[in-house]
From TrEMBL:
Provenance organism: Propionibacterium freudenreichii subsp. shermanii (strain ATCC 9614 / DSM 4902 / CIP 103027 / NCIMB 8099 / CIRM-BIA1)
Residue ranges of coiled coil: none
Location of the region described as Disordered in the Swiss-Prot/TrEMBL record: 207-341
Chain intervals with Low complexity compositional bias: 236-249
Upper classification of the organism: Bacteria, Bacillati, Actinomycetota, Actinomycetes, Propionibacteriales
Listed name of the protein: TPR-repeat-containing protein
């Protein structure tokens, strides 16, 4: 199917090469209607109307679709087979065509009548289809273009200008060359401006890229406690832990970095948690009526370099250190509000 895809891509740019690819695909899969249709379209675009006629007739027989009759008649007309083209047109009039192909049939018949020296009949057919508003805007633009073309050949250039302008107004996609025909008739046609210029296009492309937002000073302040990988800064976390320890009266158990965990002393009956400290949640919580046994030492796990704090009897509350205010708020994420001794 590579030949079939290449034929479709080259149809407008290089019809001859497109036909070569289409015929290569036909030699490999001649029984597929889509292949025969591609070969017909490429041959028609390349001006090879004999091959186009053969292929269109074949695909029409294979599919039973009557919508190929207008282009079959046009190929016969291009080959000078006027009588055969008229018979095909009559057959198409009795067939169930879609509205777009009905317009194409009118265009083919009007052109055929002009070729046969019956231009007034061709103009009549076009006028009727225009007055009936047959087909969508694109089809109506083609009808007006064909009508203007016949008027110009008649020598009626003033009316031809009006109908070329009407065709141009309906040709939204600019598929027709009504602008060029108007310039040939001496009409000053302004160039159509694009919907947006190149700068707008580049701006849209930049917005779609969704670049990273620039960091402002306020964002720098709010992100002060974050490390480059998104975790909280270790210094800020240590300051928070120290401030919370001083406010609550519970000693800080010290650093938890891998190199410092070797100095951590843990009783043999307790399992260290992931940070190397004893799991405090496993110890039983004394109730209000319990009295500590004075014969046993109740000491928490100690860390080298930190003083051990003996357990206090119930009812005794440790006094806060001098210079430390009670109800000290915990340190904020940016380091402000730290407790100073």
């Amino acid at each position: 199917m590579a030949h079939l895809m290449a034929a479709g891509e080259l149809l407008d740019e290089d019809p001859a090469l497109a036909q070569a690819h289409a015929m290569a695909a036909r030699r490999r899969a001649a029984r597929l209607p889509i292949v025969r249709e591609a070969a017909a379209e490429a041959a028609y675009a390349n001006g090879d109307f004999a091959t186009a006629l053969t292929e269109y007739r074949a695909v029409s027989r294979m599919t039973g679709n009557p919508n190929y009759l207008p282009v079959i008649a046009d190929s016969e007309r291009a080959l000078g087979k006027h009588d055969q083209a008229l018979r095909t047109i009559r057959e198409a009039h009795n067939a169930d065509l879609d509205v777009v192909q009905e317009v194409e049939l009118v265009l083919v018949e009007a052109g055929l009548r002009d070729d046969m020296g019956q231009r007034p009949e061709g103009l009549r057919l076009l006028r009727k289809a225009i007055s009936d508003r047959l087909g969508p805007k694109e089809s109506q633009a083609r009808l007006r273009y064909a009508y203007a073309n016949l008027l110009q050949q008649e020598g009626n250039e003033s009316d031809a200008v009006r109908w070329f302008e009407a065709s141009q107004a309906l040709d939204v996609e600019a598929d027709l060359d009504a602008d060029d025909r108007l310039r040939d008739l001496g009409v000053d046609v302004p160039e159509k401006e694009p919907d947006f210029d190149e700068e707008d296009y580049l701006l849209i492309q930049e917005e779609e890229a969704d670049p990273e937002p620039e960091v402002t000073e306020s964002q720098d302040d709010s992100d002060e406690g974050l490390s480059p990988d998104g975790d909280e800064d270790s210094d800020g976390a240590a300051a928070e832990a120290s401030a919370a320890s001083e406010a609550s009266g519970v000693p800080d158990l010290g650093p938890t970095s891998p190199e410092d965990t070797d100095t951590l002393t843990v009783p043999s009956d307790e399992e260290p948690d992931a940070e190397g400290t004893a799991n405090a949640s496993d110890e039983p919580t004394p109730s209000a009526g319990d009295v500590p046994d004075s014969s046993e030492d109740h000491k928490p796990a100690s860390v080298e370099g930190n003083l051990e704090q003996p357990a206090l009897p119930l009812g005794d509350t440790p006094e806060p250190d001098a210079g430390v205010a009670e109800d000290q708020p915990p340190a904020g994420p940016d380091g402000e509000g730290e407790v100073h001794s």
